[in-house]
Amino acid sequence: MSQVEPSMSLSSPRMHLQLNLGQKTGLVLGFSGLLLQILAFAGVALPAPVLVLTLSLLGMGGGILLYGWASYQGKPAGIKNNGVWANSLSNRGLWGWISTLAITALYVLLYFFPQALGQGSNGAANTGLVGLFDPLSQFLKKQNASQWFVYGVLYTLGILVMGFKFIWKYRHNRYQVIRTCSVMFFQTGIAFLLPEFMQRLNQPYYDFKNMWPLDYDFFEENQMQYLLQSGGVGLFMIVFGVLMIFIVSPVLTYFYGKRWYCSWVCGCGGLAETVGDPFRQLSNKTLKAWQLERWLIHAVLVFAVLMTLATLFAIFHKNPTGYYVNSLGMAIISACIFGGLALLLWFRPQAFKGLNPQVKVAATAILAVLVLASASGYFLGNPDIFFVPSDWLKAWYGFFIGAIFSGVIGVGFYPLFGSRVWCRFGCPMAAILGLQQKFFSRFRITTNGGQCISCGNCSTYCEMGIDVRAYAQKGQDIVRASCVGCGICAAVCPRGVLRLENSALDVHTRAGEERVIRFGENGAFIEA
Amino acid sequence: MHIVIIGNGISGITAARHVRKLSEHQITVISAESGYFFSRTALMYVYMGHLRLQDTQPYENWFWEKNKIALKRALIQKIDHHAQVLTSHEGEEIHYDKLVIATGSKPNKFGWPGQNLGNVHGLYSLQDLEAMEQGSQGLKRAVIVGGGLIGIEMAEMFHSRHIPVTFLVREPSFWNHILPHEESEMVNRHILEHGIDLRLGTELQEILDDGQGKAGAVLTKNGERVDCAYVGLTVGVTPNIDWLKGSALEINRGILVNKHLETNLPNVYAIGDCAALREPQPGRKAIEAVWYTGRMMGETLAHTLCGQPKVYDPGIWFNSAKFFDIEYQVYGQILPKTPDDQANLYWEHPTGKKSIRLVYEKSSGAIKGFNLMGVRYRQEVCEKWLREKTHVETVLQNLGLANFDPEFYPQHEQHLLEKYEQQSGKKLPLRQKRGLNAVLKFLQKAKS
Ligand SMILES: Cc1cc2nc3c(=O)[nH]c(=O)nc-3n(C[C@H](O)[C@H](O)[C@H](O)COP(=O)(O)OP(=O)(O)OC[C@H]3O[C@@H](n4cnc5c(N)ncnc54)[C@H](O)[C@@H]3O)c2cc1C
Ligand code: SF4
Ligand code: SF4
Q1: CA distance linking residue A212 with residue A216, whole number of Å
Q2: Contact A496/B320, CB-based, under 8 Å?
Q3: Is residue B112 domain-resident?
Q4: What is the pTM of this model?
Q5: β pairing state of B197-200 and B268-270
Q6: Is residue B331 part of a domain?
Q7: Number of domain units in chain B
Q8: ipTM of the complex
């Protein structure tokens, strides 16, 4: 090069997206299916609803399947990210914005204006889009559809067909194939079909894989009563839910990291991994985003815990003998939890070493508030332990966190901020599992010696916005609370640098030092 | 003290970062190519649309100011080592106390007729990539000359945009001066599988003008003509040091440096692709134009610059690459033709897309190298075996330690043991399966 050349257009490759015949057909088919739904939504009277619904679901599902198949068939298996940043759907271009608007609008209608979707109110028959789904709902559970049934069907369909596309795309990678089968199974079998069939058998609605605090109203009074009233099965569900929180989840997270839930089981995670896959590169990798993430997600966790505690105390206060646990029991449970934490701190101080002082102060403050609140509830007999009505807390949580954050923003903003906005910045479940993953788990991503070429594929395709490269290029293993163990960083790495691994030998020293180069007596070498 | 580094590639930047870790010296990094450090190895992914240019930058832009590393955009054209002053092409003078030359490489051109036509480029710099981007508009066919790592990357790049590629490789098989026969054959097959017009044993004769000063076709030495509007020249690289010719600096192909990376001039050092070791270690080359050695040199030199002189020792050779979809890793010494005193253990997957090769010394059984295609091995484990000259039978029985493939991937260790049995008649049990626990114990770095 003979001179300094400052301006270049490289950052916007002039690549043209070329669609093959299969992809085009898939798109036409998919949009035709979608059109039928839009017509129903718009209130157009459609003949033969069963046929229309079948055609539209088949059209959308089949269209995506065909598109996915046509995208990868006939090409040798391997990483298929060609043109990701040239496609306006996946580079925050026009189609990205259009889909954001459409999904966001759908969520707003679902949560706040179900009538607009055709949900019949006060016993009136369903019309529009919800009405279109009545036959399927009748078939599954002998009841008419609700807006949530429509949502459930579309959600499950999305995970299934985009799951197949994902599997086809990563067919060379067994970890990805098995993991995706798992999320498809848990969504279809456990989250969708099982509860629908249970309702058909007049049993309570319960999603076995959903867990407090993601399932934030698990401990809510109506929910508890609803389950308890349905007898043995309901009681089993409560016991199951509590066991999941206190036994199953900590044990599995210790052994495998939070991935067992976040990228293998969870429905939100399932959607992110499949429907959200085209958008994973849009997550923000800056240090600022990471700082925001840590404050936000833990704030939501604290909010969820406070809200739940308040709810429980209020229930027990109102109804001191109606439950197996009363406020004394609550106080004992709280004492066990806090005591357990204190013991851990006492016997395993190294687990907390290196914590940011700000974090220590915040954590101590929160613990103090929790202890004081529990005490105020128990000793003062105060039904509203935070001196505000628990219903009020619950309503705000439901509105801001449950609806706006996890739904509207969490999914609606896929095409702008990537597929894990909710999981990364908001999910209280992810926050708990993350804390455990960071301090008490065998899981980490190991870096293969000095093989990293700093290319940036891993960081770019990390949906959680983790700057994986920052660790890999220093030869450091990656121990991050937010890593959901999707394994995509390891898959896209062109030099085989990353491996998701578990070992109990070094739980507290996993986040090892840099080890690209060491200096020995003979000079520099890469040290084991 | 003012440390000036010419070149913001991996070697220059690594040196700067480590000088900052070790000292408060003033640091200036100069580059003609780009404002910020980016990963040259990732250029292909920008073209293919996997990454944006900013995604190839390993550090955020605030990093440099925060760490007080001054970045400067200039082309240096002259060095006055008496006055310790550099002069840029705009005539600016920059004083240094210590100078690090890390100017990298440039693509080779071997004097072919037509090599300076428009749309004839190597692939090294951002500017080359820009040329490729421009040249790709409406391109009907590209010809790539030179079957090495960058050539095959370029083929993959054009292919990703559905541009037909003719790939001229002088050797009878791809990269066969590095890869053993079977691996080289595997890559040949894989290139063809992607629909690339691979012409083995074919040399470039001449590039023909399209009448407007641009490439219009190539002629091969076999007398074939291939019409094309872009020619990629990927026949290796040489140190980018033309501007130093005629200076007091001792150079042959590269800037000559001793084991402390010092040149013949006081306070002047050279690292990375542009440096040539006066005394390379046995079995190693004087110039090793790879990312890893550049990084190691940068870190080593930083210590020397900060008053803790260190000897450059690149350790045991390793490298990696990717041929379209097939990953490649090598640890230790793998020669294309195994010498007589060494033996091979080679296993290939029935799909012909994965293979594992172990090379060991016949007399002592000491392991010499690992060559992996489509399989990932753990560097630290292989390195420990190589450094300790472990017996091949011990390696084989513990081969699971080296396995770095993702979870649930099929494990191929047993196949190697079977091969060994076929070759030696000795049936050995596999003692160690894949797993991190065992690896940590083996590397003895597990602390309670
Ligand atoms: C497409 C491609 C793919 C590669 N892939 C791999 C790989 O997978 N693995 C691997 O190990 N290696 C790979 N390499 C090689 C590797 O990138 C180089 O070995 C490495 O980048 C060299 O680093 P460096 O710091 O020595 O020099 P460079 O990265 O070349 O940096 C030198 C810088 O100095 C600037 N400069 C030069 N002269 C002057 C001057 N007079 N004034 C001001 N500035 C100047 C240049 O413009 C350049 O920016 C690849 C190379 C290319 C081109
Ligand atoms: S670090 Fe890797 S495994 Fe973890 S979330 Fe990011 S891409 Fe997935
Ligand atoms: S770990 Fe792999 S993907 Fe990430 S920067 Fe390094 S080489 Fe690239």
Answers
A1: 6
A2: yes
A3: no
A4: 0.94
A5: unpaired
A6: yes
A7: 3
A8: 0.96
